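Pipeline run #58 for the internal structure catalog. This entry was flagged by the ingest filter as a single-chain record with no existing model, so it goes straight to prediction. Upstream metadata was stripped on purpose; only the residue string is passed forward. Reviewer on rotation: M.T. Logging verbosity set to normal.
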Amino acid sequence: MKALKIIKKILNIVVGIFIVLFLLVVLLQRVSNNKLSFLSFRMFTVVSGSMDPKYKIGDVLIAKEIKPENIKIGDSVSYLGEQGTLAGKVVTHEVIDIEQDEDGKYIFHTQGIANDTPDPIVYEDQIYGKIIYKAFFLSLIYKVVATKFGMFILVFIPLLYIIGSEILMAMLEKEEERRKKV
């Protein structure tokens, strides 16, 4: 009985920490409009098919802040669009060419794999980071959570489980104490 309590407690803590960390990272980026990173990492979700088949809609990508001189042709980068239809949107596309202006600042030419035309010019200060990882597990969670049923299954049920098991453990402890007195 005691080992079961310890295992449940550890499981509750791990699930709780994972949910809280995931929500904190998502909220941090949403509230700051992607201006803040978490230990130089940012998390983005693919919302269009412009990088298909490399990245599909709903994929969660992890970007790491990187110095502009370390970005190479062929790297996928996330940046804040400033011109045309991309203005104000976070875009993740592949670098197809790199230049430097007379001040030594980097200028990137990017394009979605599935797009026919390149994006407007991207300056180094627009770059959020280089994509270093496609988070399969988080992508799966995001795709499921994006539905009402998935949100219920992956968020509310674990929270109810944690709350319910805590209530149950408290009730069992009280019953055990009551029996010891009798």
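catalog note: The mean pLDDT is 82.
catalog note: The longest helix spans residues 148-181.
status: ready for reviewer M.T.
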